[in-house]
Amino acid sequence: MKQIILAVVLTVFAGAAGADRITSMNRAERCAYETRLQVLAAYYFGKGTPRAEVKIHWHGDETQYEIDFVNHALDVGYERIRLEHEAGRKDTPLEVLGDRIYETCMQGSES
Fold first, then answer.
1. What DSSP letter does each residue of 22-46 carry, written as one string?
2. Which of 13, 58, 89, 106 is spaced 20 to 30 A from 64 at the CA atom?
3. What is the Cα–Cα distance from 32 to 82, expressed in whole angstroms?
4. Sign of CA pseudo-dihedral 29, 37, 80, 63
């Protein structure tokens, strides 16, 4: 199930071969995508799956930037949920966490 979820997330942005789908997204799209990936990382973390064991289904047409973006978002998601747990917020619903991630991204500076 987890692999299917990640495959669906990655497929949402499948476009023309070789196109960099991340840089062509507007801020809201990029923040939504990053939020989905980070919430997915929190889901895996909650199930006890180490980050190194999260399998990513690549389609073969991703740019290096896209691969780095996905891996970075998953790494940040794991770190974010670890900090939530350390702060005593182990029961934070994924929806609440997702809202926080999205709002933070939308308020951040353009990168």
1. TTTS-HHHHHHHHHHHHHHHHHHHH
2. 106
3. 21
4. negative
Whole-angstrom distance, CA of residue 5 vs CA of residue 20: 21
Q: Which residues contact 89 (CB under 8 A, 6 or more apart)?
A: none
SS3 14: coil
For 31-57, the pLDDT digits (tens) are 999 999 999 999 999 999 999 999 999
Contact between residue 51 and residue 75 where contact means Cβ atoms under 8 Å apart: yes
pTM attached to this predicted model: 0.78
C-alpha closest to that of 10 among 87, 71, 86, 80: 71
What's at 72, amino acid-wise?
H
8 three-state secondary structure: helix
